[in-house]
């Protein structure tokens, strides 16, 4: 296991659509997931997409117990999600603050669907089919955006609600 370098906004890998995973339960997939878990924990993230560590494949991990970066957030079950498909369960959206390990130190208000269904596979090829609401739905949408080459700043509708975390959230 190793902590991988996090790519930052501007890196071309973060701007392209990731390739579908064709083979599950391989030593390479398991090693990448271990590295991503260690990297996410080290950075105190709520999720991480493979493109953020330089692997342009459709694989994300996410999960939150208690997290200093998101102290108000409800728990999100740890999940490995491969080749995801997201379907909104309602057209209702809510605005909330987001950050990203690939856009360090910044925060912005992003509209996201309140309720979604997500489907895909775990690292062994087992199907995943879940409904999610609130922070859980937001995290899934944010991470899966990375697989489409989308970083959250491009989803911000009011740029007055985008800036450095320590400037916005002055204690």
Can you tell me about this structure?
There is one protein chain. The chain is an alpha+beta fold and 171 residues long. The chain has a single domain (12-168), classed as Peptide Deformylase (Alpha-Beta Complex), CATH 3.90.45. The protein is 19% helix and 34% strand. The protein is built from three helices and eight strands. The longest helix has 16 residues, at 27-42. The mean pLDDT is 95.
Primary descriptors:
single chain, 171 residues, Peptide Deformylase, globular
Q: Enumerate the spans where pLDDT stays under 50 for 5 or more consecutive residues.
A: none
Number of helices: 3
Shape: globular
How are helices and strands ordered from N to C? HEEEEEEEHEH
Total tally of structural domains: 1
- Please give the CATH architecture: Alpha-Beta Complex
The top-level CATH class is Alpha Beta
Give me the Rg, rounded: 15 Å
Largest sheet strand order: 1-2-3-6-7
What is the count of β-strands? 8
Q: Major β-sheet, in short?
A: 5 strands, antiparallel
> What is the straight-line distance between the termini?
37 Å
CATH topology: Peptide Deformylase
Q: Roughly what fraction of the amino acids lie in strands?
A: 25-35%
Helix content: 10-25%
- The CATH superfamily turns out to be Peptide deformylase
Counting helices, strands and paired strands, the structural category is alpha+beta
- In round numbers, the mean pLDDT is 95
């Amino acid at each position: 296991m190793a902590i991988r370098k996090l790519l930052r906004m501007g890196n071309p890998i973060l701007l392209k659509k990731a390739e579908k995973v064709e083979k599950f339960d391989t030593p390479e997939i398991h090693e990448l997931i271990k590295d991503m878990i260690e990297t996410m924990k080290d950075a105190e993230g709520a999720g991480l997409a493979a493109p953020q560590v330089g692997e342009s494949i459709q694989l994300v991990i996410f999960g939150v117990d208690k997290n200093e970066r998101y102290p108000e957030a409800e728990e999100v079950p740890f999940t490995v999600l491969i080749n995801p498909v997201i379907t909104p369960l309602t057209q209702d959206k809510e605005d909330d603050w987001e950050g990203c390990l690939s856009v360090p130190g910044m925060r912005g208000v992003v509209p996201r669907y309140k309720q979604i269904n997500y489907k895909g596979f775990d690292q062994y090829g087992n199907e995943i089919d879940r409904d999610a609401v609130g922070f859980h739905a937001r995290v899934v949408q944010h991470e899966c955006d990375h697989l489409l080459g989308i970083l959250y700043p491009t989803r911000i509708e009011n740029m007055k609600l985008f800036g450095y975390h320590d400037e916005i959230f002055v204690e």
